[in-house]
Amino acid sequence: MRECRGLPLPCVGMTPDRLRAACLEFTGAGEEFPFDEHISVFKVAGKMFALSALGRRPLSVNLKCEPELAVQLRSSYPAVTPGWHMNKRHWNTVVLDGSLPERMVLDLIEDSYDLVVAGLPRATRERLGWKALAEENVTRGPAAPPGHT
Fold it and tell me: Where does the record place a coiled coil (predicted)?
């Protein structure tokens, strides 16, 4: 496997079909076209977590991001810029030109989904089968030391 920017992951431009599939793989995710037939909006429980003009080149996607991480990503990767036509504090536009490893893009999509779901009412999160790491630790309690069950 070739390296991409020192990482042992391939650098390939994501296709529109791959982007759509990645956004729709999450529980409760759906695709809508509220603006026009060319702009795909991916939502969970009626809340947007990704937006892309899948026919536009270069392909890009707007993703929700924690503000501090958004700034770090923008300063580290030229393909990550403030969200186009979005709240620039909470959204990034990620250009899918192959300069970012696909695994990183998939992680950013998942992070966006998780941020949106974390803000949903608890009953909706439970219906989606989603638990934040903090909720899982409270439910399960701390892990037992090795050798103690």
Answer: none
Q: Does domain 16-126 have CATH number 3.20.20.100?
A: no
Find tokens 């009412």 and name the residue. Answer: 121
Q: Kindly state the percentage of the chain with pLDDT values over 70.
A: 80
Give 44's strand partners: 29, 47
> How is residue 145 written in tokens?
């030391």
pLDDT band at 62 (very low <50, low <70, confident <90, very high): very high
> Where do the structural domains in the chain lie, given as residue ranges?
16-126
Q: Using CA atoms, how far apart are residues 98 and 57, in angstroms rounded to an integer?
A: 12
* C-alpha to C-alpha distance for 148 and 119, rounded to whole angstroms: 36
> Rounded distance, CA 91 to CA 89, Å?
6
Which among 101, 95, 12 is positioned nearest to 58, based on CA atoms? Answer: 95
Q: Where are the beta strands (DSSP E) in the chain?
A: 29-32, 40-44, 47-52, 60-64, 80-82, 91-95
CA distance 133 to 102: 24
Looking at the DSSP bridge assignments, the partners of residue 50 are 42, 63
25: its two tokens: 């793989």
User: CA separation (Å) from 99 to 40, 71, 120, 149?
Assistant: 23, 18, 33, 46
